[in-house]
Amino acid sequence: MFACIHGPDANRLADSFSPFVEMVDEKTAVFSITRRQIRQAESLPHPVAVAATAEAAILAARNLPGYTFIAPGQEARVLGTLSIDALPPDPELFETFHLWGIRSLEDLARLPQDDLAARLGDRGLWLQRLARGAFERPLCPRIPATVYEESAELEHPIKLREPLLFLIARFLHDLTARLKSQSLAAAALHLTLNGNQRRHGLPFPTRDVKLLLKLVEHSLERQPPDAPVAKVRLELIPTEPRRVQHGLFTPAAPEPEKLELTLGKIRGLVGEKNVGYPELFDTHRPGSARPATGRSYLSFRYFRPPLEARVSAERLWTRMFQGKILQIAGPWRSSGDWWQPDTWNRDEYDLALSDGALYRIYLDRAPKKWFVEGVYD
Amino acid sequence: MAAAFPLGWRHVEPLDLLSAAGCDFPRGRISEIIGTRSSGRTSVLHALLTASTGRGEYAALVDTKDAFDACSAASVGVELSKLVWIRCGGNAEHALRAADLLIQAGGFGVVALDLAEATPAALNRIPPTAWFRFRRALDSTPTILAVLADRPLAKSCSSLTIKMPPRRAAFTGRAPFLLLRDAG
Fold first, then answer.
1. Cβ separation A266–B102 shorter than 8 A
2. Which of A89, A105, A309, B94 is 20 to 30 A from A189, comparing alpha carbons?
3. What is the pTM of this model?
4. Contact A264, A340 (CB under 8 A)
5. Beta carbons within 8 Å of B123's beta carbon, 6+ residues apart
6. Do A58 and A31 belong together in one domain?
7. Res. B16 pLDDT band, cuts 50 70 90
8. Residue B20 above 50 pLDDT?
C-alpha cells in the first residue's frame, strides 16, 4: 500500500513513517506504508490518503479532505467524484474532454478504452488509467547524496609532511574504493587541516590514488600547514567517471594525469595564476587579450609592466634602451571603462627607433606619462 | 594598432614564413629562432604554433618575460585552447625548469621556450648541460623544442638555427599622417 501526505510539512511527517519518500512536489510526499502504520496515519493533521497505487493516493490526498482509505479495487469509485481538473493539466486534451461533456473522473473512467486510445492516443489512455486509479508505477524515493569523506582527530599533532601524506593516502584508498563501488569518480578534492580548507578542482574525473596523492603533496609543498596538524578531514566530490574513446588518427596529446601533475609542479614553481591557456576577453582595454576584429600580421610582444619612458620630439629614453625617433605614426586615442576605478585614457603611437625596432608607445593622459607598451616583432 | 591597411598592401602569410625561411623544424630536436627586436622572430614562433595547433597537436609556451600577446597570436591562427601558457615573471631558471617538466611529460607537438629580452646575466647562468639534458629528453619524441632568443644559446645542441635579419619599418601615408603597415 502507498500513503500520500499533502501539506506544508509533508516531508517531515513522511520521514517519520519511512526512509524512502518520494517528494512529488514541495507539499506532497508519497511513501510505502505497512498495515500497522495505517492507524498512525489516520491521526495526521493534513490530508492523507492510503491506496494500492501511488497515483491514486496522490489524487485522493490532493483533492479530498482529511483521511481517506481506498480499499483495493475501489479506486475508481472513490476518485470518480473528483473533477476532471484534478488530473495533471493537459490543455489540449482537457478542451476535448470539455467538448465531449466529461466533467468528472468517473465520466472519463467510463469511456471505452480502445476508442479513447484511437482518438487521444497514449496520453488520453494514461489519463484514463489515472482516473480509474489503476496506473501502477514504482516509487522513486529521494536518496540523500552520499558524502565521501574521512576524518581523524589526532592525539599527537603531525609535524612532518610524510606521516600526514601516509594518513591522507589511507583516506584516499578508502574513499576511492567507495566511489568505485558506486561507479563514480572524484571531481574535486577538499582537504581540511586544522579547520583550514583547501579545495582542489580536478580537470577530469578520476579515482587514481597516486594522482590525487601527488596533487595533495604538491599543494602541501606550495603551502605548508601553519601549525602541526591535529585534525584532518578529506572529502571527495563525486561525479560521473570519464569515458574517452581514442582514435587511430588522433594526434598525440599529453596524458591528462601526467599533464595535471606537471602543471601542478610548474604552478608550484611560477605561481598558481601563471599557468593556463590564453583567453580572449571581449574588451578593447589595451593589454588585455581581446578578440581581433581585423587580421593583423604584425606579431606583438608586450613589456609587462610597460616601460616608463621620456619622449622628446626626436628621442626616446627608457631604462632598457634609448634611441633617435626615425618615424612615428599616430596618435590613436582610446579610452574606456570610465565607470570603473581602473579607467584608461591614452594616445598611442607606433614609432621606428634608431635601434631598428618598431615600438608601440602611449601617453597616459591621466598622469601625463609616457610608456612603451611593447614591440612589433 | 594595425587596424586598417591601404589597398594593395602585401603581407607575408604567417604560415609562409616557415616555408619562406626553408624551415622544417625537426621533431625530437632543439631549434633556435634568433633575432633582434622587430626582426620577425615572434612571427615565426607564432607561425610554428599555428601549424602545430592547426594539426590538432597541443603546444606549450614558456614565456620568460611575460611578453606573449594572445591577441596577435590568435589573429594569425594559433588555436589558444590548445596552447598551455606559462608565465615565468622574468625568471629564466624557472623557465628552463618548466620547459624541462613539459618535455618530460611528453605529448606536446611544440614546446616553445621564449628567452628573448631575458637579461644577459640570467642567460649566462644557464648551464650548458641544460641544453644537453633537453636534447637527450627530446630524443625519440615527436616534440619540437623551439627556443626564441636574442642570441644563440643552445650552440651545438641545436639542430636548426634560424637567424632573423633586422627588418625595416614600413609606413604608408604622408607625415604627419603615417600608418604603420609592416616590418619588412
1. yes
2. B94
3. 0.68
4. no
5. B92, B115, B149, B151, B153
6. yes
7. low
8. no
Q: Which residues of chain A lie closer than 8 angstroms to B104, CB-CB?
A: 262
Amino acid of residue A377 = D
Same domain, A6 and A125: yes
Helix/strand/coil for B124: helix
pLDDT tens digit sequence for A59-99 = 888 888 888 888 888 888 888 888 888 888 888 888 888 89
**Chain A interface mutation, best of B13, B180, B181, highest count of A Cβ atoms under 10 Å:** B180
Assigned domain for A156 exists: yes
Q: How far apart are the first and last CA of chain A?
A: 79
Structural domain including A216 reads 148-239
Number of separate domains in chain A: 3
A285 in a structural domain: no
Q: ipTM > 0.90?
A: no
CATH of the domain at A235: 3.30.1490.100
Among B75, B87, B98, beta carbon nearest to A292: B75
Contact call for B178 and A329, based on CB within 8 A: yes
Question: Same domain, yes or no, for A165 and A114?
Answer: no
Q: Which domains does chain B have, with CATH numbers?
A: 15-183 (3.40.50.300)
CATH, residue A82: 1.10.150.20
Asked whether residue A183 falls in the same domain as residue A158, the answer is yes
Q: Three-class SS of residue B58?
A: strand
CB contact A270 to B (< 8 Å): yes
- Strand pairing class (A67-69; A48-51): parallel
Interface contact flag, B43 A297, Cβ < 8 Å: yes
Which of helix, strand or coil describes residue B34? Answer: strand
From A308's Cα to the closest Cα of chain B, the distance in A is 16
Q: Is the domain of A217 the same as that of A116?
A: no
CA–CA separation, B88 and B63 (whole Å): 6
Q: What are residue B61's DSSP bridge partners?
A: B85, B112
Establish if A284 belongs to a structural domain. no
pLDDT above 50 for A180: yes
* Residues A121, A166 within the same domain: no
Domain boundary residue among A217, A239, A261?
A239
- A178 and A64: one domain? no
Is any Cβ of chain B less than 8 angstroms from the Cβ of A296? yes
pLDDT tens-digit readout, A219-240? 888 888 889 999 999 999 999 9
Torsion of the alpha carbons at A46, A52, A55 and A56, rounded to the nearest 10? -70
Tell me the pLDDT tens digit for each residue of B124-133: 889 989 999 9
B8 pLDDT more than 60: no
> How large is the average pLDDT for residues B23-34?
87
What's the grid cell of residue A257? Answer: 594525469
> Residue B36: its chain A contacts at CB < 8 A?
356-357
The shortest C-alpha distance from B5 to chain A (Å) reads 9
Q: Does A340 touch chain B (CB under 8 A)?
A: no
Residue A141 lies inside a defined structural domain of this protein = no
Compare CB distances from A278 to B36, B42, B80 and report the shortest one's residue: B80
